[in-house]
Amino acid sequence: MLHTLIVGLGRSGRGLHAPSLAKARAAAPGLFAAGPVMGHDPRVGEVDGIRKVASLEDAARRRPPRDTVVHLCTPPHLRVRALERLAGLGYRRIIVEKPLALDLMELAAIARLRRRWGLDLTVATPWSASTLSARLLAVRRSGAFGSLRAATVLQHKPRFTRTLESPGHPTAFDIEVPHALAVVVTLAGGADVAAAELDDMVLDGTRLPGMGGARMDLVHHTGVLTRLESDLTAPLRERRIVLEFDEAVLTGHYPCSETDHTAQLSVALPGREATRSVFPDDALTAFLRSCYTRYSRPWGDRDRGDLPVHVEAVRLLVEAKRLCSPDPYPPYTERREVAGEVDSVVGA
Q1: How far is CA 94 from the centre of its chain?
Q2: What pTM, to 2 d.p., does this model score?
Q3: What is the CA radius of gyration of the chain?
Q4: What per-residue string of b and e applies to 241-268 under the rule 16 or more CB within 10 Å gives b?
Q5: What does the H/E/C string look like for 108-125?
Q6: Hey, which residues does 249 pair with through a beta bridge?
Q7: At what angle do helices 131-142 and 177-188 cross, to 10 degrees?
Q8: Can you tell me the distance from the alpha carbon of 286 to that of 187, in angstroms, rounded to the nearest whole number?
Q9: pLDDT value of position 165
Q10: What does each C-alpha distance from 204 to 207, 234, 265 come to in angstroms?
């Protein structure tokens, strides 16, 4: 049975991981060791249901790192340093908040850490464990409606306050889009970026470059065309995916907040009235339970999860950001050298 350490008790750690973890512990107590969840974040006070520890070293003294799953919920630009500290203390099972890395240089650094310390990393994109995603993938694999031709994902929500208060993400591509990328790469395979755009966020005279919205067009190697859109200035929340098959159009709606874990799916066939289903879909709780189930197995009996999907997602995010603003990125020859090294993030 496994202990838990949440590193970073901001919105992701305290507001998302902790409550979903409590539900997973209640549903599958045999996976979890007795005792409270540990948490570390020097910027945050006491949190209900979490035993604060003064440092990572303190956490390692209280519970054995080899039997502990770490939820790394720090901002993405602090990730590599945190992983290095955790690895040095003996932690090996680590759930990392999305995205896995912000650029290829960080991805290469994570690859080196994973290879050196034998880290078993899982990226927290709950849509991969979503009931809606599972249904869409089952339809795709069955071929019931022919071949998949195109996919569109819309991820809209107002995010003004959090963007101003928590400037840990460099662009709008790094916030909602990783969820969608994990799904479409799973559904349609690897891809190339055909086009990408970023919009600024403007609020009461303050302009935040590249934080208002993101758009990305993908051409998958299977021939599927994907359009991803994320508007962080939208007045309403929406998480919608549309899959166009030869013989049908499937439209799914993911839950928009932790207050209602319900998804919807409609299927439209030519000449017939569309059918609609509504079903529970607590994706983060299901995701965490699947992580602990996998981590409870001996190392040699574990699969590597969907880490290759997230490596591909980082590559696509980096390319999209380069198309929008090429100056901050290293020369093409250097990017090629780094891209070769990041292959070891899944091959180690």
Answers
A1: 14
A2: 0.91
A3: 20
A4: bbbbbeebbbbbbbbbeeeebebbbebe
A5: HHHHHHHHHHCCEEEEEC
A6: 244, 268
A7: 20
A8: 19
A9: 85
A10: 8, 16, 38
